Known about the structure:
This protein is of the alpha+beta class. It has helices spanning 2-26, 33-47, 95-98, 105-108, 124-138; strands at residues 52-60, 63-70, 76-83, 89-91, 142-149, 153-160, 163-171, 177-179, 186-191. It starts with a helix and ends with a strand.
Amino acid sequence: xxxxxxxxxxxxxxxxxxxxxxxxxxxxxxxxxxxxxxxxxxxxxxxxxxxxxxxxxxxxxxxxxxxxxxxxxxxxxxxxxxxxxxxxxxxxxxxxxxxxxxxxxxxxxxxxxxxxxxxxxxxxxxxxxxxxxxxxxxxxxxxxxxxxxxxxxxxxxxxxxxxxxxxxxxxxxxxxxxxxxxxxxxxxxxxxxxx
Length: 195
């Protein structure tokens, strides 16, 4: 009886492993920037806000990153991620949720004392200096590149040897720097900027 139970257990474990391998290798996912753009556009349409547009999509090893901005102001509204395995779109972690004074969680829960404004005490030039200071200390050989202004913070592309290396955000009120360590290696970008 013990041998029969052991054999049955081994068969069930084997079936489970085979099923896991099949699901892992054959599941549908988001494998192109065009599919990510379609998901991004569908999400934008669901907002029913004609002032929100897609500015940029970046493909990284772990996810797609999408910038939405306000057409009327040109200021970044919020950042979203698309899971490459499932195609699920959701708010980007960190600064987008915590520092965004207009569209982030803190703003939605009444946690911000600042009135949402694209004008912040820390300006673009100081953001570049603060970001570069962190990069010089923790990511040798990297430099700041494009800077995108959002409500309450800036997101900065980081480059190394002429290629995008990653990104970080700088709080526009207190200068705190938050490196985005959830993307993985950079693959490609596409600028959208709707009219």
